[in-house]
Amino acid sequence: MNDYDEAVLFTFSLLESRLARLEYLLSGPPSPPHNNNVKPQTIPERIHAIEHSLAQLAGKTSLLDSVNELLSKYKDVLTPPPTTRTTAPLTSAQKSAVVIDRATSISTVASQLTSLHDSSIPSTDGFVKLAALRPRIAEAERRQLEQALKIAELRRRSGM
């Protein structure tokens, strides 16, 4: 089997699995098959089975009708915009001019990347210790808030 045939079979198996997931999502667990779980083997049989499953799914839910209606209204949603090239490709002289114009920024970026590569990464031990102390810090903040509320209540009672 060549690569093309494998790619086609892989694509069909992906389509079938996605369709099975959609069927499960929209209509629940599948009913037991009537034909002793015989899967179609040839490509035309598999295409027919996928089309048949889609037709059954469309009959069970109006969701596919809504999707088809939206697609008919907004046809440009799933089609990429046309890529029309209005400018001619650059000549060698124009390419050279662009490279010369950007040469200083290229050397600057190369220098910055080299300095980043040469700099060492600081140790994370302090951050790890601080992260380990986070629950204790949160508890202290909670206690401080409780104490501030008690002090405010005592001041209110004593008339201060």
TrEMBL record:
Q: Cross-referenced InterPro entries, in alphabetical order? A: DCTN3
Q: Name one GO biological process term.
A: cytoskeleton-dependent cytokinesis
List GO terms (cellular component aspect): dynactin complex
Q: Return the Pfam families for the record.
A: Dynactin_p22 (PF07426)
Q: What is this protein called?
A: Uncharacterized protein
Organism whose genome encodes this protein = Didymella heteroderae
